[in-house]
């Protein structure tokens, strides 16, 4: 389907295929004794991939079947990088703030209210969310509007499963995600950078695209708090800010929702926010990106791909001027 092999890519195993920690550790110490030059490229690649994944404790483990139709071949970002370089402004605007402060957020019990233009409104707790559809592991690129990207093995299922269950009415044209805004737990809430709570939204047909992922975990475990525990969306063909973290309400609407970044700077952040190397941000180019973990002095930037490489979403935008609807 849409995901083509990256010519620079390495063919990766999924978290579930990865050897247990003990085996991995002993193998690594053996490898350390060899000179790097003596290693075959394949062994190095294998080692790098293993190092990208976490070693979750049993309580954090989340089992999911790899879905090979949704797997980019780029090397996953190291777990360490994906969990220490974050945007989650409720905890502060520095990349290191979410890792430092989000640990205190209480993620259980948690409920998501599903309401608005639907026939079957309901409130889902975490257990209901986990059981709503089979969990899949999907390796997606995530491209931040700021010009960096990561590759993350997410765990979840297509958001369309939830949409189908609640039976949207004929009036439902959009879907709005509202996320937690609790001053007591979140030191960034109250800062004037954004209007709180953080709200995002999609057109209903976008939300129904199978790529749009309702996400409960990553790297074989439940979501770390800084990555949007316990439930977020990941919309990989759009800039990262569309992928709202720590969702508490999903509302179906007739009108286009007002969204946090669009409210704060409408000229800079549109409602659609599709990754598009041809439409620059007013203050910088979007033609290329820095892959987190590859930022050596001599490392070349990567070319940003239309729709972040997820070209089969193009049919959602037939006839639309994507410079106007940026
Ligand atoms: N609630 C909430 N969700 C959010 C944000 C935020 O500040 N608050 N930041 C967004 C931005 S700008 C990006 S790039 C991604 C980052 O996701 P990650 O930290 O898991 O890589 O989360 C998005 N979701
Ligand atoms: Mo972002």
From TrEMBL:
GO terms for molecular function: metal ion binding; molybdopterin cofactor binding; oxidoreductase activity, acting on a sulfur group of donors, quinone or similar compound as acceptor. Its cofactor is Mo-molybdopterin. Residues 106-261 form the Oxidoreductase molybdopterin-binding domain. The keyword Metal-binding applies. Its EC number is 1.8.5.-. SUPFAM superfamilies: Oxidoreductase molybdopterin-binding domain. Pfam families: Oxidored_molyb. Mo-molybdopterin binds at residues 86, 89-90, 144, 179, 227, 232, 243-245. Keywords: Metal-binding, Molybdenum, Oxidoreductase, Signal. The keyword Acetylation does not apply. It catalyses: L-methionyl-[protein] + a quinone + H2O = L-methionyl-(S)-S-oxide-[protein] + a quinol; L-methionyl-[protein] + a quinone + H2O = L-methionyl-(R)-S-oxide-[protein] + a quinol. It comes from the Bacteria. Belongs to the MsrP family. Heterodimer of a catalytic subunit (MsrP) and a heme-binding subunit (MsrQ). Part of the MsrPQ system that repairs oxidized periplasmic proteins containing methionine sulfoxide residues (Met-O), using respiratory chain electrons. Thus protects these proteins from oxidative-stress damage caused by reactive species of oxygen and chlorine generated by the host defense mechanisms. MsrPQ is essential for the maintenance of envelope integrity under bleach stress, rescuing a wide series of structurally unrelated periplasmic proteins from methionine oxidation. This is Protein-methionine-sulfoxide reductase catalytic subunit MsrP. It comes from Noviherbaspirillum autotrophicum.
